[in-house]
Structure prediction request, 240 residues.
Amino acid sequence: MSGLLASGGLGPDFRVEGMAPGWDKIEVTSPALDKPVILVPLKKGARESSGLGWSMIRSGLRAGTYPFTATSHGRTVATVSVKVAAEGPVEIRRFVIGPQKAFSDAPAPKRPGTDVRVILTVEGPALGDSLTVRSPVFSDPLTVTTNSADDPGCKCDDGGGTVYAGHTRVREDVPEGRYTLTAVSDHGKRIAEQYVTIAGAPVEHGPSWMVPGAVAAGAALAVGGVIAVRRRSRTTASSE
Prediction:
């Protein structure tokens, strides 16, 4: 008889045992999970799954006992109940904005048009692989992600937390002043707030070499379209 086993953590670890030979995939679902967990055989013909299938508990979930169901090709093969503890507070280890190149945590005003890197380190409940940072100084919201190439690798203030990083450019037309940066989870929950001071003359980037090429490509596409039609007839520390 097959059985589903779960162990704790920020998200349960799952494995299945006692499956009939020849099984290929199992999906574990629960109202407590962000998304289903997929389990596969340890090896060809094995009756147990390979390693542990891990998934995150939904943010904001109430403490309690929740059912987890394992199904294979639409058939329920095992169930288990898991006790989920209350979600702890999120602790912000670091929320800084600095130059994209030669990054520094040192607080300093940013000039309009500056290329910047934003780093956020979170400890506490799992928040997923990305967060959104919004600010009037950015033209669009910035997505910061885990395992980002923008992570400078300095762990001095990270304290073992999850590091999110990303880069963008400060608007060239943003007036001098002090502005808010707000980090938001993918569930829309505000995680942290930071401030940045904008001062000085805008950084001059000059005309982009991509522009003429983009115009030429657009013209070629437009001409091609005409031909086709005719043929077919159609909180934390300030980063100031």
Summary: DSSP finds one helix and 14 strands in the chain.
